[in-house]
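Chain and backbone:
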Amino acid sequence: MKEESATTFPIRQLCFIALMSAVMCLLGPLALPIGPVPISLMTLIIYLSMYVLGMKMGTMSCMIYLLLGFAGVPVFAGYTGGAAKLLGPTGGYLVGYICLTLVGGFVMERFSYQRIWCIVGMVLGTAVLYAFGTVWFMVLMKCGLGYALSACVVPFLIGDLAKIVCAELVGQEVRKRLRAAHFID
C-alpha cells in the first residue's frame, strides 16, 4: 500500500500542475486592452494556484504557461504568443508571474496559509511583479518611472486588490475542500 500512495502522489501533483496551467492558458488570453498592459484574470488565477499548489508547483504551472506562450501558442492576452511578446516591453509582467508565485507562495506556505499572511503574501508577490515588470518596461521603452507607473501599474491597483480579496475568500474554501478530500496536504 505504501508503494501505491508513493506513486500516486506525484501523479496527483502533476495533474494539478497541468490543470492550473490549462486554466492559465484558457483564461490568460481573455483581456481588456487599456494601454500597454491589458487587464486580465491572470493574477487571480496565479493567486488561486498558490492556494491549491503551493509555491513550487504553482511556479511550475506558471512556467509551463510561459513556455507554451514562448513557443508560440496564443495563450497570452489577446490570443498572442511567441518570443517577441514574452521578450517585448510588457514581457516583464509575464515573467514577473514567476516572482509572484515564488514570493507569494513562500509567504503563504511559511505561515501555514493563515488568512492574514496569505493576503500579505499576495500583496508582496504582486509588488515584486509590478517592480520587475516596470523596470523591464522602462528599459525596453526607454521611458521614465512616472510614465511606466501611470501606464502599467496604477490602472491595476484596485483590480488586483479586488482579485486578492476574491482569491482569499475562494482560495481558503477550495484549499479546505481539497484537504478534506485528501487531494492536497
Q: What stands out?
A: The helical segments are 2-27, 42-70, 83-87, 91-110, 115-141, 145-152, 157-180. The longest strand covers residues 31-32. The two ends are 18 Å apart (CA to CA). The CA atoms of residues 19 and 61 lie 8 Å apart.
